[in-house]
């Protein structure tokens, strides 16, 4: 399941400030996509445009044949039921406990009775590891717990499309690893179309099926994970490998002299492409492709050492015994 989100020629300015121009991409149904970009490049604005909270100046966002950018308020209200959204700031109601926060979309958008609402809320709280915290106020819990509560709330309406803005900002590495695994397991379970905005390069390299990069007021590239991780395009290469060498400077683009000096130094080799994270819940992901499939199909030689199992993570049974004959 999950639905395609077709973004075509999207352009947005606030007053004289152009945010991005001519953004065109399709979030494939049921796949996990990550959007990257330096701070202020309009990633959050893009998410808000996808749910119709911000109207683009030009272009279309088509979901199930309806253009979010131009449809009626009534159609927009219906289409929004397909979405679950975790905003960057969590956007929890401070005076409501976690239970009521998570129950809010159910009370607002459905006619379900309180006992059914309780079952759904507790199921989602369990999924994000928050059982026992339902009566706490958002101000009484850690940032990581607030993110997970926001995620539980984004899930209660069984979304077809999940938009998640910086789930890992302010999280420690262990919690980030847990939340990444949760996304993979959730995707296996609900098959929704995911778009995750993050600054975490490790998550970007291991979680999604597709990666996009917003840079310099346009979409620099969007495509399968292996395509971007093997790309020699300077901006993509620099961003996805978190390097100082490349066109992106500390505060703005580097000038020609700086770039020429770097060219003489030569670029470090691309690091190996890691294995993609696999589900831990025993449910295979419909759209997870075998390691190296994109590279093979497109005649691209991945960097040496790619697709080796990470020695620090437990191996799945298929990785542990790749040559073992089935019994
Ligand atoms: N409602 C608004 N009115 C005017 N300007 C806005 C509005 N929302 C966002 N902006 C501007 O649009 C630009 C992009 O903002 P956005 O929040 O999308 O960046 P971002 O890529 O999500 O950054 P970060 O990584 O820091 O979260 C910023 O310059 C911001 O000030
Ligand atoms: Mg943002």
UniProtKB/TrEMBL annotation:
PROSITE patterns: ABC_TRANSPORTER_1, ABC_TRANSPORTER_2. CDD domains: ABC_Org_Solvent_Resistant. InterPro entries: AAA+_ATPase, ABC_transporter-like_ATP-bd, ABC_transporter-like_CS, P-loop_NTPase. GO terms for molecular function: ATP binding; ATP hydrolysis activity. Pfam families: ABC_tran. The keyword ATP-binding applies. Keywords: ATP-binding, Nucleotide-binding, Transport. Residues 309-327 have a biased composition (Polar residues). Residues 263-327 are annotated as: Disordered. Residues 5-241 form the ABC transporter domain. Transmembrane segments: none annotated. This is Phospholipid/cholesterol/gamma-HCH transport system ATP-binding protein. The lineage of its organism: Bacteria, Bacillati, Actinomycetota, Actinomycetes, Propionibacteriales.
